[in-house]
User: What shape does this take?
Amino acid sequence: MLLEVGPLGVFFFANSQGGIFWGTGCFMAATLVALSLSFIIYKKIPIMPLISGVFILVFGALTLWLHDDLFIKIKPTLVNTLFGSILAAGLFFNQYLLKYVFGEVFRLRDEGWKLLTIRWAMFFFLLAALNEIVWRNFSDEFWISFKLFGIMPLTLVFAMAQVGLLKKYDASPKTP
Assistant: This one.
C-alpha cells in the first residue's frame, strides 16, 4: 500500500512546494523508487503498478519535455480506461483476467470471478470519467488532492465493498 500511495504523496507535496512540473518530476522519481523497492522486497513487480509506472514515466516525461501538464493529467484517464478495457475484453472472450492477477489470493467460483471482473471494469471506467471531470473543471491543486484524497479512498471503499461477493462465491476447500 505504501509503495502505491507513497509516490502520490510525493506528487502532492512536491506540487505544493514547486508546482506541477516539479511535482511531476518528483512523482516520476518516487515511482521508480517504489517499483524498485517492490522488486527488492517481493522479487517481482505486480502487473498493475508496473503498467501504471510505465504510464507515469512516459506521460511524466512528455509533461516535462513539452512543458505541458495535459499529459500527466490524462495519464489516470488512459490507465484506468486501459485496465477497464482489458478486463472487459477478457469478459468478451470468457476469460476472467482478475483470476490470473488474484488467483493466488482468492479462490472463487467462475461466476464470482465474472462478477468481480465486471465490477472492477466498471469501476475503472468510473475512475477514468472522474479524472476527466476533475482535471477539466478544477485547479491543478484540487486535481492532485483529488488523486490522493479522493481516488485512493474511493478505491479502498470499493475494494472493501467486494468482500460480500468474495464470501458468497468462495471456492476454498472447507475444513471441518
The mean pLDDT is 92. The CA atoms of residues 2 and 20 lie 22 Å apart. Helices lie at 2-18, 20-42, 47-66, 70-92, 97-102, 110-137, 140-160, 163-168.
